[in-house]
Amino acid sequence: MIKLYTFPPSTNSRKVRIALLEKGLEFQRINVDLSKREQKNPEYLKIHPFGQVPALDDEGFIIYDSTVINEYLEDVFPDVPLRPRNPVGAARMRYWNKFIDEHVMNHVSMHGWHRMIGIIARNIENGEFEKLMERIPLPDQRKKWKTARSGFSEADLTNATEKILYAVDKVEAQLAKTAWIAGDDYTLADINFYSHCGMMVERMFPELEIAKRCPRLVAWREKMTARPAVARALRGEDRTAPGLRTWTGHAR
Amino acid sequence: MIKLYTFPPSTNSRKVRIALLEKGLEFQRINVDLSKREQKNPEYLKIHPFGQVPALDDEGFIIYDSTVINEYLEDVFPDVPLRPRNPVGAARMRYWNKFIDEHVMNHVSMHGWHRMIGIIARNIENGEFEKLMERIPLPDQRKKWKTARSGFSEADLTNATEKILYAVDKVEAQLAKTAWIAGDDYTLADINFYSHCGMMVERMFPELEIAKRCPRLVAWREKMTARPAVARALRGEDRTAPGLRTWTGHAR
Fold first, then answer.
1. Do residues A72 and A54 touch, judged by C-beta distance below 8 A?
2. Could you write out the DSSP letters of every residue in A75-111?
3. Which of A72, A219, A243, B43 could form a disulfide with B91 if both were Cys (CB 3.0 to 4.6 A apart)?
4. How far is it, in rounded angstroms, from Cα B182 to Cα A159?
5. Which segments of B53-206 are extended strands (E)?
6. Element (H, E) at B5
7. How far apart are CA A110 and CA A108, in angstroms?
8. pTM recorded for the entire structure
9. Rounded CA separation B86/B142 (Å)
10. Is B114 buried (19+), middle (13-18) or exposed (0-12) by CB count in 10 A?
11. B221: helix, coil or strand?
12. Do A15 and A109 meet the contact criterion of CB atoms below 8 Å apart?
């Protein structure tokens, strides 16, 4: 059976859980608690050498990177398609996935790290923090933890917000033309944008007045949230820890 | 017939030309001269709304983004495969493509922009430069042109060089395990890394002593360069303009 190493509030984990549930696939869920830094444990590093979630174990083949995992699921389990079967449609989906991965995800993530990982990182004592840093394999991730601890700069946060505005406007314009983000089919691009931005952009950035600026995006989000697989994927998420509440914007 | 809008020295264009030639596909090549800023002409913006190369026109369907185009070519013309047919192999290839697109391409490109577009941008008169900026649809691209004109900061260039070192070491380690970057098959990941970094990293960054540091990468590069399709793709490139010589490191 497929094993998914996941941390429920992680946006990348969510992307894969939604895809698995949409396809009606059975899978074993193994929680890797990022707030306890379990992703840096030596046992987990044997599964994912960079210490990140999610990782998918399909009969011993380990796949990582959520976008890559979701295309893999399409290749192996095409029965419930989340990628258009015609090549032009697949290309449109991949174009959007790349846009979301390269120009959306990191910018929302920076605000999330600033609010959530910042709290976790500042609660770690000196000495222990340096030891944790030694266990993080990717230099970029080490840099991100250190920045989260000291706080991201206003300039970087403002730049990230501008990029998010650019993205929501782009999606809004697209939804004026097609029912879903990559065309008239529901695809992995919808799951990607929903998980990284669409589901929480209004809560995380009330000052952007998304409902007024992007009514189509809000209607699309409601349509997403109403999907049984999406609802099931979100149900397991723990939003009780203070850092997570800050991240997701949930009051409790 | 497939039409490819291309600018020979552009690394993204090169990626697609190599894939087309490897597959033995006939295509019409339409040069879009970036040094004359033809990619921002209104006629071209009708084809590619963001004013970038390459763009592929397959019987009226326009596809852009070089990684997306190359997967599209796989979907439509699978006879000469450049993507493994088994899903695990395809996932490995996509993992590397994402790594190259997100963590290699931009960093080499920054040095290229610093050396090449910087020269072009500084040769444009005030007033005319601002007019050009108005014609650039993507905010990120406008920012990049402005930075190229004033010069990238030492800190950013140093950071980019560190990322390039990380990437060449990662590829070197992989080539100790497999014949090609994504496994034992030649794939789009090899074409991607070659076009964006492998073919010119030694010439562009002599101070990194790549030959000493990464002998496997150098042997792999020679194997790539010897492929008839790669040689044909490179033959058409104009390296006579001073800016381009600076970019590619060619003496003439």
1. no
2. HH-TTS-SS-SSHHHHHHHHHHHHHHHHHTHHHHHHH
3. A72
4. 34
5. 55-58, 61-64
6. strand B2-6
7. 5
8. 0.91
9. 41
10. buried
11. helix
12. no
What are the tens digits of pLDDT across the range A90-123?
999 999 999 999 999 999 999 988 888 888 888 8
Q: In Å, what is the CA distance from B87 to each residue of A71, B71, B82?
A: 9, 14, 13
Of A58, A64, A88, the CB nearest to B61: A88
Quick: pLDDT tens for B54-76. Answer: 999 999 999 999 999 999 999 99
Q: Residues of A with CB below 8 A from B103's CB?
A: 140
Q: How far is it, in rounded angstroms, from Cα A210 to Cα A214? A: 5
Rounded CA-CA distance A150/A169 in Å is 31
Six token digits for residue B33: 């001269």
Among candidate residues B81, B74, B100, the one with its CA nearest the CA of residue B189:
B100
Report the amino acid identity of residue B143.
Answer: K
Interface size, chain A vs chain B, as Cβ–Cβ contacts under 8 Å: 65
Locate A32 and state its tokens. 């890797």
Among chain A residues, the shortest Cα distance to B95 is held by: A68
Nearest one of B183, B187, B87, B249 to A73, comparing CA atoms = B87
Distance CA B199, CA B222 (A): 9
What are the tokens at B24? 């033995």
How far is the C-alpha of A187 from the C-alpha of A84, rounded, in Å?
7
Cα radius of gyration (chain B): 18
Distance CA A21, CA A15 (A): 10
The residues that bridge with A29 in the sheet, in sequence order, are A4
**Residues β-bridged to residue B31:** B6
Cα dihedral: A208, A12, A167, A209 (round 10): -10
Of the candidates B67, B72, B88, the beta carbon closest to that of A98 is on B67
Choose the mutation target among A67, A88, A142 for the interface with B, i.e. most B CBs under 10 Å. A88
Query: Comparing C-alpha atoms, which of B16, B116, B112 is closest to residue B66?
Result: B16
Tell me the residue type at B207.
Answer: E
**Residues in chain A with pLDDT values less than 70:** 236-252
